[in-house]
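Allow me, if you will, to draw on your knowledge of protein folds for a short while. I have a record of one protein: its chain in single-letter code and its fold written as discrete structure tokens. I should value your view on which stretches of the chain appear to form regular backbone elements. Thank you for your consideration; the sequence and its tokens are set out here:
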Amino acid sequence: MTHPPRADWWKRAVVYQIYPKSFRDVTGDGVGDIRGITDRLPYLADLGVGVLWLSPIFASPMIDNGYDTSDYTSVNPLFGTMDDADELIAEAKKRGIRILLDIALNHTSTAHPWFQNALAGGDKRDWYWWRDGRCGAAPNNWRSIFGGPSWTKPDGDDQFYLHLFDKSQADLNWESPAVRAAIHESMRFWLDRGVGGFRLDVVTVISKEPDLRDVADPRPAPLYRHIAGGPRLHEFLREMRREVFAHYDCVAIGEAPGVDPARAAKLVDPADPMLDMIYHFDLVAMNPVTGGDWDRRPFKKIFTDWDRGIGADGWNSVVVSNHDLGRIVSRFGDEGRYWKESAKALLTLVLTQRATPFVYQGDELGMTNCPFTSYDDLDDVWAKTTYRLKREAGADHDAAFAAALAMTRDHARTPFQWNDGAHSGFSDVKPWLPVNPNHATLNAAAQAGDPDSILAFTKALIALRKSDPLWIFGAFEDLAPDDRDVFIYTRTFEGRTATVALNLRGADARVTLPDDSVMLSNYAGPFAHDALRPWEARVHEASH
């Protein structure tokens, strides 16, 4: 049966992202697994989240940690079995939690049977993008998001295949009806098993102009903007809605690199809902000077631009951290002197927007970037490619390693810090990535009984959001868009207005705040109405 289009559980829920490889290992191999997630469902239910987004658990060679899928309808043995997945879905449901799967539909692993068939000249050759070279070189000037050319010519083959990412991730040719039918079947497979929907990885680049012409600037960001929203994207997404999503009570979240608010609004228009929610990249792309004095005005403007751009009838996500980024408190906060205050302030920002908030595992504890000291400690293919390209360009080891450290996604992928044990309670054996040394004091067990902890504050914020529709549906307005450091905004719903005041800097700030009482803050009272302390966050009660 087609589900009523006004279902909005995905608007009301807080999404918690789990990177399975790093969350909890119960099988004793140093790698997180599905049973480890099931084991920690009581913790997640107590936190108050309603959706668990799992980074890919599908079969994969794991060159790009699961975003290189080799079978969309199998569970990666590294993470467990299909029975483990079914148990997780069922046990989460008992606690009112839905499972959201991350699925990469733009490309498959070159180990996927589809690509192996194509490589052998079989009937799936046109399932991928193959082109003749130009004078022995690549068919066009596109560059891989991970660095280097986006074309590879396999040994013994006369043509090149396209890969916007690593050469092990061959782009699917969505022009083929057979490709689309196979993808739809794979998605229905999981929805029939009870998952609550999908986060569609880089879905805005699945449609490409068939001539694959050169671009003026082939670097990753400009290339994304060129490719995103290809000529048949809307057609493909409408077909996916018709063939898949319309028949289930599920959510479709589109990761949308290269898409601006105006283009995104068309994708989530309730009158023609191709997707339910956009997972945009503007906050992801922000790279402030860590610990430095940076201008918060462009950062704040992103929230206003997307709220207005999507419009009152559309829906946003708010994502400031994920598996591809440095830790939120390390990027935007102060992991030193004001670690606790800045972590709480940033969580307040995320959890009080008119959008579905995404909390990445460990953010509720204030986990920080890891001080990697050896190239051998890195796992991220992007970081390793960066290192290799720097060395090939003449950089010495130290300079190349520094460049890799500056962007490595491994900061977000170090094991979850459950306790102060030898391996942070993540595993009984040495984990696949080093544990951050600060787990000795920064861990879930230490914060569990502390009412002033970041964990306790996160629970209070989630409970606040769930307690009043104002925090879900209330209109958003930035009251101080020109202030370099302070973010003050209102949420208004059915005649009531609440105010959120955030000092995003480690110094006192002069402000003008309402006289309404403070519901929640990362500082103890009394509260001045004309000043905010360093990294102070306040939520003022709603008034008529």
In short: The chain has four domains: 9-109+177-373+418-463, 110-171, 374-407, 474-543. The two ends are 42 Å apart (CA to CA).
